[in-house]
Amino acid sequence: MTEVAKVKNIKLPNDQDISGRTFGEEELNAVKEVLETGTLITTKGKYGKMLEESFAEKMGVKYAFACNSGSAAVHVAIAAINPNPGDEIITTSITDMGALTPIIYQGAIPVFADVCPKTLNVTAETIEAAMSEKTKAIIVTHLFGNPCQMKEIMELADSKGIPVIEDTAQSFLATVDGEKVGTIGAIGAFSFQQGKQMTTGEGGIVVTNDDDLARRLYLCINKAWGYGDENPDHYFIALNYRMTELQAAVSYEQLKKLDASVEQRQKMAKLLDEKIADIEGIESYKPADNATMTYWKFCLRVDDSVIKDGSVGLAGALRTYDVFSAPRYVQKPAFRCQVFREQNTFGDSHFPFNLARPEAVDYSEEKFPGTFKGLHDVLVMPINEKYTEEHIEFVANSIREAVNDTKIENAEAGNKDCVVCGGNKCYEV
Length: 429
Known about the structure:
single chain, seven-stranded mixed beta sheet
């Protein structure tokens, strides 16, 4: 076993407080300006409109509409598609509940697609396997800032006439085939939650190039009230998902820093990749050759034939160095959560699951080999725009020591073939 000099623990920047965030005088002055005007509602203030215009320009789209959370962004995107009760929306088995409950609230059935275990992203193949004649829309989630392979997904969706919603909560400015994720499908949904590449604590924004969808998105954020219409009314059922001017002021200033924040995350991730590339038993997530990754988190695949107790064991060893990581990312696939297991929705109606095909709510483990393999292997590590080369050196040395501490003697690396396609067909590595 290689002897490694013990490293001295240092405190890493944390995106849950100021040490890992880029807040400064700009945000303070913007918030102060809003408070001094006394106008905190975006329908009458200036910052909401400025944010939407600037974000649309940054993304290269016609329309952007701010809302009060990433979950709201996903909800209004689904509402804009306007599914009928019992329609099916394909989504990923590995995502936050805030991206799933909006499907149920719109009366649609979430149908889970398996993922590639090397990325935890859905693929055209896994989406196609989940399709039926009731499929109304597809939601693709670009997990950890790593884009899905959108060319193949869009070809499949377009051939069926099915709109694609991109959940881009973790993937600001990531690209695939030269296009920014969030701008490729019919609608892109972004989150400004605390740990994202830009933040206002909570908040979100939706983007589109489609005129009709833009109208629906705007109305879905504003209680379906037709502001500015000749004879405005509440045209359909919709909630108040507006962002406040205080949120918009922070978001507007954060947007100005987004390029630099993403660039620093990418630079530090590349450096960490290089420093740990020779360590047996771990492999970092990397984007495909046609994509760029913007690193909401830095992820490792951990081989439990080399490292005792796999990702869980390595996470425990890293805590010795005050490097806190999350084995498995989420402890179980979304469909194993109680809301899906017991169909706990509206009273005791089980709606909309009472309208579902049996196949749509079949969560048998054998249908999701990539999901279970991917969650078993993944270790999610922190990274943010305040990381420096010193922090990366410390993290790399901590990983090296932790691997040495947990490595199984005389171990041989296990089979690296993808359990979904049997090789590297679904994702080139």
